[in-house]
């Protein structure tokens, strides 16, 4: 989930908790070019104030105008299809003849508990699924362990149902508040990562100057278990101090984190693997470690190292869906 979409759900929760109604719009399908992916969210209140985005402006303006004027969606969810008529392309500026299908739901105080629960799950870095029957507006939310793609069920006979799983944002959990961490944190936030820096050394965190980053003063093994034991987290050890890095890596390699890395030379990394083997980690767990961390691009300076790390994370994260599909086919 992107930061903007989590902000939308938070706004929905706060608006409903204040006893005010609002609308929630969800992109359920795109055809052709689309500025925002399926699952993107937009919240509109009675004043026409918005959080989120569907198209970059054009569709939002049309939707807000009709909602505030009371022309759309006052009693139940509705599926709107933009771009089907030629005039839509000219009026709304949809690129390359693209089509955009959007489910718009009117929300009221009775939905407040549901969205409060959804935000609590996301804050705890857990997944939650929401199911909406469009004909009646009936809504349920249930906890789940894994992320699933949005589905809009449109059977020939029976109700149309939207199923949308919300998962936590991608997190970069950095062990050590040094110079490389600072560059990495700044660049990672630009790529929509939630960044957490963990360091047991209070004086290092006191000097931390990157806004928007969560800081945790704790031993890294405790920090990993409390804040990064989930499949949407990448954990990277960056202190150059084995007394700190190795403790964090022990917990990280046993965690659910999808990526675990450590900074250091080939020689340093080889010695680190030897130490981890003496700490009762299995061969399979140690093989999860990316060390030296990052793509091999000849990086030497802190910003170059940060670029190499983010390049590797980007390349591997793009390949994750393909690997998951291959595993599914292999077990079918």
Describe this structure in words.
With 332 residues, the protein is of the alpha/beta class. The chain folds into two domains: 164 residues, no CATH class; 149 residues, NAD(P)-binding Rossmann-like Domain (Rossmann fold), CATH 3.40.50.720. It is 39% helix and 23% strand. It contains eleven helices and 15 strands. It has a six-stranded parallel sheet with strand order 12-11-10-13-14-15, with helices on both faces. Strand 8 and strand 9 form a beta hairpin. It is elongated and about 65 Å long. It starts with a helix and ends with a helix. The C terminus is likely disordered.
Summarize the structure.
This protein is an alpha/beta fold and 332 residues long. It contains eleven helices and 15 strands. The protein has a six-stranded parallel sheet with strand order 12-11-10-13-14-15, with helices on both faces. A five-stranded antiparallel sheet has the order 3-2-1-5-4. Strands 7-6-9-8 form a four-stranded antiparallel sheet, covered by helices on one side.
CA-CA gap between termini = 28 Å
- Gross geometry: elongated
Integer-rounded radius of gyration: 23 Å
Domain count: the total is 2
- What characterizes the major β-sheet? 6 strands, parallel
- Helix amount: 25-40%
Give the uncertain stretches in residue-range form. 322-332
Order of helices and strands: HEEEHEHEHEEEEEHEHEHEHEHHEH
Strand portion: 15-25%
Q: Numbering strands along the chain, what is their spatial order in the largest sheet? A: 12-11-10-13-14-15
Notable characteristics:
332 residues, alpha/beta, 15 strands, Rossmann fold, elongated, 6-stranded parallel sheet, single chain, 11 helices, 39% helix, 5-stranded antiparallel sheet
